[in-house]
Amino acid sequence: MRILLLGSGGREHAFARSLNASPNCTQLFITPGNAGTAACGTNLSVGVNDFEGIKNIVLSEQINLVVVGPEDPLVNGIVDFFLADDQLKNIPVIGPSKLGAQLEGSKDFSKEFMQRHGVPTAAYHSFTYSKLEEGYQFLETLTPPYVLKADGLAAGKGVLIIDDINEAKQELKSMLGDGKFGKAGEKVVIEEFLKGIELSVFVLTDGKNYKLLPSAKDYKRIGEGDTGLNTGGMGAVSPVPFADAAFIEKVENNIVKPTIAGLTKDNIDYKGFIFIGLMNVGGEPFVIEYNCRMGDPETEAVLPRIQNDFVDLMVATGNQKLSTIDFKVDPRFATTVVMVSGGYPGNYEKGFEVKGLDKPTESIVFHSGTSLTNGQVITNGGRVFAVTSLDETMQGALNKSYRTAHQINFDYAYYRKDIGQDLM
Ligand code: AMP
Ligand code: GLY
Question: What is the number of the ligand 2 atom nearest to the C-alpha of 295?
Fold first, then answer.
């Protein structure tokens, strides 16, 4: 099997490692990849949204399977692009169709989907500029804090949670009227605030069957104690201790099954991952959001626990044969600690030499934002590494990740020291 993987983050390094570990993977290409993926296959330099460039790779390298990491090419319709092309249409692409990717690409679409299929979620209404006054009135019916969401993709910044009603009204106006989030904010979802603890579950579906992947919790804020600015994720743990068997059964029955059935009912072509962001509200799961891809850094904690041949899993997803797979998960804890460039998620410098990468023995060091210059690994992003470890206990896994992070050096490196502590 000759495989092409799209993306360049820690998630993609985790995918590349799992794909490359399979005896069924004869050759792996990653585009654009990073210094970590270069050790698992061949990096190429085509961007993930350059569909013609991707077509050229698929034809020239005789690719049999494409795995998509990030949401952008999915929302832009890469699956539909393959299906509409006579030379590409028989090559499976792991990821949903453009319509399926709207579960992430449009909050309004995903809320309507949940409502239509009886998936528990916060009560909501959507508004455009012509309905601004009605938006104000709806806010008056809610109790604070107020949750405002730009409908479209806004690089993770499109959700506002505001305590004061006047400020909420002002923000609604600046989103709808003044283009605060550009096109993404031309429609705004206002929803009820859900109080509880967040976690994520991941589903792999072939459109008919599904496998429930391990749960994970990520740590979004830059500062310890979950303070400061939002980031792409500063760490993750899997499994989530409070998500016990009874809770996961509720998630499966109340959320996963109606979601998969809904995709079928709505004729949505979906062969790929669904990342379900959940709030545990007094023991009941509610969906906060769907994403049409795996999470980052959650993937770096989830994938190392999957014991199946990963290529077999991807092929079965493409062929709608997931029901034939006997899914196996490592019962141990996986923790990942993300090392970032000083200043992230604000301004930060790149291009620093990384030292100590030859030392770690008790962790897997996934590269998130690195590149290779004359054989030397240099920092090339805000999130630089995700250091993953496995152990019988969460604390044991964390100890290994922190010992490893301590051995890796680059200028202005920073990581949170409290990953997982809220769960002990
Ligand atoms: P989203 O981009 O939809 O994941 O929202 C970003 C973050 O906002 C989530 O991870 C939650 O922490 C928070 N959030 C979103 N919706 C709600 C809600 N209805 N109630 C409480 N918190 C929310
Ligand atoms: N870690 C959150 C995300 O991937 O969206």
Answer: 4
> Residue 278 CA: which ligand is closest?
1
- CATH 3.30.1490.20 assigned to domain 124-191? The reply is yes
Nearest CA to ligand 1 atom 6: 159
| Nearest bound ligand to the CA of residue 232 | 2
**Is the pTM higher than 0.85?**
yes
CA of 155 to the centre of ligand 1 (A): 14
Helix (H) or strand (E) holding 73: helix 72-75
Q: Are 379 and 338 in contact (CB under 8 A)?
A: no
Q: Is 304 in the pocket of ligand 2 (CB under 6 A)?
A: no
Tell me the C-alpha to C-alpha distance, in Å, between residue 397 and each of 297, 301, 302, 384, 401: 16, 11, 13, 20, 6
Number of C-beta neighbours around residue 83 at 10 A: 15
| Cα–Cα dist 93/53, whole Å | 15
DSSP class per residue in 305-358: GB-S-HHHHHHHHHTT-GGG----B--SEEEEEEEEETTTTSS-----B-B-TT
How far does the centroid of ligand 2 lie from the alpha carbon of residue 16, in Å?
A: 18
Which residue's alpha carbon is nearest to atom 2 within ligand 2? Answer: 295
- Evaluate: CB of 159 within 6 angstroms of ligand 1: yes
* Ligand with an atom nearest the CA of residue 189: 1
Does 108 sit in the ligand 1 pocket, CB within 6 Å?
Answer: no
Domain ranges of the chain: 2-97, 124-191
- Domain 2-97 indexed as CATH 3.40.50.20: yes
pLDDT tens, position by position, for the chain (424 residues)? 999 999 999 999 999 999 999 999 999 999 999 999 999 999 999 999 999 999 999 999 999 999 999 999 999 999 999 999 999 999 999 999 999 999 999 999 999 999 999 999 999 999 999 999 999 999 999 999 999 999 999 877 899 999 999 999 999 999 999 999 999 999 999 999 999 999 999 999 999 999 999 999 999 999 999 999 989 899 999 999 999 999 999 999 999 999 999 999 999 999 999 999 999 999 999 999 999 999 999 999 999 999 999 999 999 999 999 999 999 999 999 999 999 999 999 999 999 999 999 988 999 999 999 999 999 999 999 999 999 999 999 999 999 999 999 999 999 999 999 999 999 9
CB 58, CB 66: distance < 8 Å: yes
Question: Which of 159, 188, 279 to probe ligand 1 with, by most ligand atoms within 8 A of CB?
Answer: 159
